[in-house]
Design goal:
This protein folds into two domains: 10-206, Up-down Bundle (Rhomboid-like fold), CATH 1.20.1540.10; 215-262, no CATH class. The protein has a two-stranded antiparallel sheet. It is mainly alpha-helical and 276 residues long. A hairpin with a 6-residue loop joins strand 1 (153-155) and strand 2. The longest helix has 34 residues, at 211-244. The chain starts with 9 loop residues before the first helix and ends in a 32-residue tail after the last helix. Helices cover 63% and strands 2% of the residues.
Length: 276
């Protein structure tokens, strides 16, 4: 058994730097008496379901980079470092970015869905108009880590015993669930747990190399199918032309569809053979 810190490079370092920079910016604005500027940041970049419904789609991503409380930031960044580094080492930076933004987007979408359900179905107003913080992406990371490395044992400081990762993730998810239900606007906060669902969806149903790779493969597959269709169409047109002129296409093509070289007497070039 060895004790060591997880790697702190690549996407993890960039995410921690962005979240910390935004927190320090809002803290500085608050200290200098520019509270209206902080409100402007929330108005523009925090997640508001009614804003999203009116076209502010970027809020489904930008809300995850805003923290207004130090311990909220600290907890999320520690979870990102501890478990996100495992996924980045397993997938690589490109796919980890894709997964993290997928989880953030899924949690934000869940927040919007729950907010409108409360308002339209249960006739309950959304108590907390803004949602912010990286919790949705963190929950997606926790779910993916539990599914991929569930039997790996880890220590949760300061507890003096090891625990399997899948049980630790279950415990953290339960704590988050209880905390959401016990807070103001708990049902709206509970929607952040949609990150767990989208983390499960990504690991379970997305191709091994990620959405971007699958999309590129699909694009090239469609493009190749189009070119094959064009070749078959040209082939049929040529066959119709040859039949109209009472000529056999087999004189020009072999059974594999390759062009037959003309007879030596038909060549008009030098002594070299015909190159197809």
């Amino acid at each position: 058994m060895s004790l060591s810190f997880p790697p702190f490079t690549g996407a993890i370092k960039i995410l921690v730097a962005i979240n910390t920079a935004v927190f320090l910016l809002t803290l500085l604005l608050g200290i200098t008496g520019h509270g209206s500027a902080v409100d402007g940041v929330l108005e523009t970049f925090a997640l508001n379901p009614h804003h999203v419904a009116h076209g502010h789609i970027w809020e489904l991503f930008t809300y995850a980079f805003i923290h207004l409380r130090f311990f909220h930031l600290l907890f999320n960044m520690l979870m990102l470092w501890m478990f996100g580094s495992m996924l980045q080492s397993h997938w690589g930076s490109r796919q980890f970015w894709e997964f993290y933004l997928f989880g953030v987007f899924g949690a934000g979408l869940s927040s919007v869905a729950v907010a409108f359900t409360l308002e339209k179905v249960l006739h309950q107003a959304n108590v907390t108009p803004y949602t912010y913080g990286a919790s949705g992406g963190i929950y997606a990371i926790l779910m993916a880590a539990a599914m991929l490395f569930g039997d790996q044992e880890v220590f949760l400081f300061p507890l003096p015993f090891a625990m399997r990762l899948k049980y630790l993730v279950g415990l953290l998810a339960l704590i988050a669930l209880v905390g959401a239900l016990g807070s103001m606007g708990g049902l709206a906060s509970l929607a952040q747990l949609g990150g767990l669902l989208f983390g499960f969806i990504y690991v379970k149903f997305v191709p091994r190399r990620g959405l971007a790779f699958a999309s590129s493969e699909s694009y090239y597959g469609i493009r190749n199918a189009y070119h094959r269709w064009k070749r078959e169409r040209a082939k049929k047109k040529f066959q119709v032309y040859m039949r109209k002129h009472n000529q056999d296409p087999k004189q020009y093509f072999d059974e594999y569809g390759n062009f037959r070289p003309p007879d030596e007497k038909d060549k008009k070039g030098g002594p070299g053979g015909w190159v197809n």
